[in-house]
Design goal:
Chain A: One of its GO terms (biological process) is fatty acid biosynthetic process. The complex is a heterodimer of chains A (394) and B (311). With 394 residues, chain A is an alpha/beta fold. Chain A is built from 12 helices and 10 strands. In chain A, strands 3-2-4-5-1-6-10-9-7-8 form a 10-stranded mixed beta sheet, with helices on both faces. In chain A, helix 10 links the parallel strand 7 and strand 8 (313-314). In chain B, helix 2 (57-73) packs across helix 5. The chains are: A alpha/beta (394), B alpha/beta (311).
Chain lengths: 394, 311
C-alpha cells in the first residue's frame, strides 16, 4: 500500500484552489503579469496570487495582522488539502512545510522603516523565522506534535514530501500534511535580478532564447497517509508517493553543473526507489525555470538518464512563475492532477530547442495518453537536487 | 518501542567558549560573559582563503566544524549532510536587505546567494565534494532536534555515517529586537555551531550513544511527554544522572544544569548541550544517562537521550 496521497490543495497565480488551477492549466492560461498587490519592486512581470493579504485573512478567518503572506498562502492550500479530516487521538499526525523566504514579506516592511528611523513596528518580526510560518499553519489546523520546516531553497517542497513519506514508512507518523509556501518579496526579486537571471519578459523554459525566470508565489499541500491512517479515516487514495531522492551537486553555490551530476543522481535514484522501469514514466514535470543554466543542466540530466527516450516533459513555470520553496509542492499537485485526469500540461512559450541538447517539450495539452507515473524535479541553490515519482493508486 | 542505539563518533563546536578541539571542556566551563565574543580557530586550516574571505560567521563556523568532525571520525566521506538552523544566515540576509533598500542600480549578488538557509549545508557539500543527501531543517528552537531526527532516520534506512549539526549567528540588531519584543534572555545572545558524526555502529572511538530523541510542537503538557519518553526507554527520572535543560529543570533527576548560561542564547543551543553531554560522558564514567530537555521556547519540547557507550 505504501504512502498514499488522499488530499491536495493549492494556491498560485493561476488560481485559489485545485479546481481553478486545473482549469487554467487546461486552458493554457498563465498567471504571470505585472504586479498588482506587491508595490515598489523592480519586477516587470511576476506570478502573483490574485488576492491581497486582507482578502486572504478575511477568507481564512485569521484575525491578527501579524501574519506573513507566506503563512496565509500556506494556510489556504493546507486547508484545502486537509479538507474535512478530523483531529484524532489515535492517528499520529504531523505537518512539514517548506519555505525559502519565511516572513520576509513582513520583515522588509519593518526594515525599511527601521533604516528610515520611521517608528518601525518590531512586532512584524515575530513572523520572520521560517519555523513560525509552519507553526502558524499548524495552529490554525489544530495540528500539534511533529511540526517541522525545511528550507533548501528551490528544492524545499519536494523535500517536504520526501520527508513525510519517510516518516510514515518508518512508523513515526501515520499521516502527515506536507507542502511548501513562499510569498513574493522585494528581497527575492532584487536577489534574482542581482544574479541577472530575472527575465523582464515572460519566461521561456526550455527555449533556446530563454533569458531567465519570473518569480511567482503560492503554496501547495498534500495529505499523505499510511495504511493505519487509511483504515481509520476511510479516505480514498488518489496516488502513491513511490519514489524520491535528494542528491547534492557539489559544484557551485548557485549554478548547476554542466554535466547535470546532482540532477542525474536525483532522477535515477527516485525512479529506482519507485521500483519501476524508465519506460514507465509517463510524464516529467520539469524544474524548467527558464534560466540558461538550469534548463541546460536539467536537459543534460534527462538525457543522461533516459538517453534518446526522454518521456514527454514540460515546465509549468510559465503559468505560475518560479515559486521557490513552494514550487516542488505546487508541481507535485500538478503531477497528481496529471495522473488523475490523464493530462500532460503544455510548456508555454517554447519555440526553438536548446542548441546543445535539442530536447522538445510538450507544447499542447495532451489528453489522449494514460498517465500512470510522473517524475517531478526540483533543483535549488546550494546544489540541492530532488526528484519525486508519483504513481497511480492501484 | 526500543530502537538500536546510534553512536556519536565525532563532535565539534565553535562558540563563545573554549570548546573547539578541547576535550574535557565541560569540566572547566563557567557562564558565558556578556562581553564575550566568538572564539574563532584559525579558519585557514579548514577553509580555502579565497572562499573564506566571502564567508559570513555562520558559514565559517559550520564548514570548520564539519571538516573537523570528518577528520576526527576518520570514517571518510559521510553518506549525508543534515543541518538545523533557527534563523539562518542573518548576516548576509541583513546585508542584502540593506543593499536592496539603499542601493540603486545593479546589486552585488554574493550576500543574496549566501542568505538562504541551506547555504551551510551547501558549502559543506562543496568543501567535502559530497554528493549525498543534503538537508536543512529550520524549526525555531527545535531546528537541531529535527535535523538529528532526520539523521537518525537515514541511519535506520541504511546510511552508515551522517554529518549532522546546527548553527546560528548573532547580529547586532538582535539585541535591539530582543529589548523591543521584551524577550527576556537568561544569558547573553551568542553565535555558535556544533557538528557531529552520527554512526550506525560503534567503531571504537564513539564517545556516546544516542539512545532516543523526540520533538513536540505546540505542546501544552511537557511533563507528561517527558515521563512518557523516559518510560518508552525503560527509565525513571531517577535514572537520569544529568539533565541539561533550557527553560525548566527536569524534576526527579540526579542533577540539573541550565545550559543557556554556558552556551548563551540562540535557537539551536541544544546542539551545544549535546556536545557538552558527549564531553561529560567521555570524561566521567560515573555518568551513564544524560537527558537534554529543550524548552527554550515553552510550547516546543525537544528531548535527546544520550548514554555512555558500553565498553
Amino acid at each position: 500500500m505504501g504512502v498514499c496521497i488522499t488530499g491536495i490543495g493549492i494556491v498560485s497565480a493561476i488560481g485559489m484552489s485545485v479546481e481553478e488551477n486545473l482549469n487554467a492549466l487546461r486552458e493554457g492560461k498563465t498567471g504571470i503579469g505585472p504586479l498588482h498587490y506587491l508595490r515598489g519592486t523592480k519586477a516587470q512581470l511576476a506570478g502573483e496570487v490574485k488576492a491581497s493579504n486582507d482578502d486572504l485573512r478575511a477568507s481564512l478567518g485569521v484575525g491578527t495582522g501579524y501574519v506573513s503572506r507566506t503563512s496565509l498562502l500556506g494556510l489556504q492550500a493546507a486547508r484545502e488539502a486537509w479538507g474535512d479530516n478530523k483531529r484524532s487521538g489515535v492517528i499520529r499526525t504531523g505537518i512539514i512545510s517548506a519555505t525559502s523566504v519565511g516572513g520576509m514579506d513582513r520583515s522588509e516592511v519593518f526594515y525599511k522603516d527601521y533604516l528610515a528611523q520611521n517608528s518601525p513596528d518590531y512586532q512584524l518580526l515575530t513572523t520572520h523565522d521560517s519555523g513560525s510560518t509552519t507553526e502558524r499553519i499548524a495552529r490554525e489546523l489544530g495540528i500539534t506534535g511533529y511540526i517541522d520546516t525545511l528550507s533548501t531553497a528551490c528544492s524545499s517542497g519536494v523535500n517536504a514530501i520526501m520527508l513525510g513519506a519517510r516518516l510514515i514508512l518508518q512508523g513515526t507518523l501515520d499521516r502527515v500534511l506536507v507542502g511548501g509556501s513562499d510569498a513574493l518579496s522585494g528581497f527575492t526579486i532584487d536577489g534574482f535580478r542581482s544574479l541577472m537571471i530575472y527575465d523582464d519578459q515572460w519566461c521561456r523554459p526550455f527555449d533556446d532564447s530563454r533569458a531567465g525566470l519570473n518569480l511567482g508565489e503560492g503554496a501547495g499541500f498534500l495529505l499523505l497517509e499510511g495504511e493505519k491512517s487509511l483504515e481509520l479515516t476511510g479516505n480514498k487514495p488518489i496516488c502513491n508517493v513511490s519514489g524520491w531522492a535528494n542528491a547534492a551537486d557539489a559544484y557551485h553555490q548557485t549554478a548547476s553543473s554542466p554535466d547535470g551530476k546532482g540532477a542525474t543522481l536525483a532522477i535515477q535514484n527516485a525512479i529506482s526507489r519507485a521500483g519501476i522501469g524508465l519506460d514507465q514514466i509517463s510524464y516529467v514535470n520539469a524544474h524548467g525555470t527558464g534560466t540558461k543554466n538550469n534548463d541546460h543542466s536539467e536537459s543534460v540530466a534527462l538525457q543522461n538518464v533516459f538517453g534518446d527516450r526522454v518521456p514527454p516533459f514540460s515546465s509549468t513555470k510559465a503559468f505560475t512563475g518560479h515559486t521557490l520553496a513552494a514550487a516542488g509542492a505546487i508541481e507535485a499537485v500538478f503531477s497528481v492532477l496529471a495522473i488523475q485526469h490523464n493530462l500532460i500540461f503544455p510548456n508555454l512559450n517554447y519555440r526553438t530547442p536548446i542548441a546543445e541538447t535539442g530536447l522538445v517539450p510538450a507544447t499542447r495539452l495532451e489528453t489522449g495518453a494514460e498517465v500512470n507515473a510522473v517524475l517531478s524535479n526540483s533543483f535549488g541553490f546550494g546544489g540541492n537536487n530532488s526528484s519525486l515519482v508519483l504513481t497511480k493508486y492501484e | 518501542m526500543s530502537k538500536p542505539a546510534l553512536y556519536i563518533s565525532a563532535a565539534s563546536t565553535i562558540s563563545h567558549q573554549p570548546t573547539f578541539r578541547n576535550a574535557g571542556f565541560s569540566e572547566t566551563l563557567g557562564p558565558v560573559e556578556a562581553s564575550s565574543a566568538l572564539i574563532s580557530p584559525d579558519y585557514k586550516a579548514y577553509i580555502d582563503a579565497g572562499l573564506l574571505r566571502r564567508m559570513s560567521k555562520i558559514l565559517r563556523m559550520s564548514v570548520a566544524c564539519a571538516k573537523d568532525c570528518v577528520e576526527q571520525a576518520g570514517s571518510g566521506q559521510p553518506d549525508a549532510i543534515v543541518v538545523g538552523t533557527g534563523l539562518g544566515c542573518l548576516q548576509d540576509t541583513e546585508k542584502f536587505l540593506n543593499t536592496s533598500l539603499t542601493v540603486e542600480g545593479l546589486l552585488p549578488p554574493t550576500s543574496f546567494i549566501q542568505s538562504t538557509h541551506n547555504t551551510m549545508a551547501g558549502q559543506i557539500s562543496l568543501s567535502l565534494g559530497n554528493h549525498g543527501y543534503n538537508m536543512t531543517h529550520t524549526q525555531n528552537t527545535l531546528s537541531f532536534e529535527h535535523a538529528l531526527l532526520d539523521a537518525a532516520m537515514l541511519l535506520r534506512e541504511g546510511d552508515r555515517n551522517v554529518l549532522v549539526g546546527a548553527a546560528d549567528e548573532h547580529i547586532d540588531i538582535l539585541n535591539d529586537i530582543a529589548v523591543q519584543l521584551a524577550f527576556e534572555a537568561t544569558a547573553p545572545l551568542t553565535s555558535a555551531a556544533s557538528f557531529f558524526i552520527l554512526s550506525d555502529e560503534h567503531t571504537g572511538n564513539a564517545a556516546a550513544a544516542l539512545a532516543d530523541l523526540f520533538t513536540s510542537g505546540a505542546t501544552d503538557n511537557a511533563q507528561e511527554e517527558i515521563d512518557a519518553f523516559l518510560d518508552r526507554n525503560g527509565l525513571q527520572p531517577g535514572d537520569i544522572d544529568l539533565a541539561l535543560y533550557a527553560g525548566k529543570p527536569v524534576s526527579g533527576v540526579a542533577r540539573n544544569i541550565d545550559y543557556l548560561p554556558l552556551a548563551g542564547v540562540y535557537p539551536t543551543a541544544s546542539a551545544f548541550a549535546m556536545h557538552y553531554a558527549v564531553d561529560v560522558l567521555s570524561e566521567n564514567s560515573k555518568v551513564r544517562n544524560v537527558l537534554i530537555c529543550n524548552t527554550l521556547r515553552k510550547s516546543n519540547l525537544g528531548l535527546i537521550l544520550l548514554q555512555a557507550v558500553e565498553a
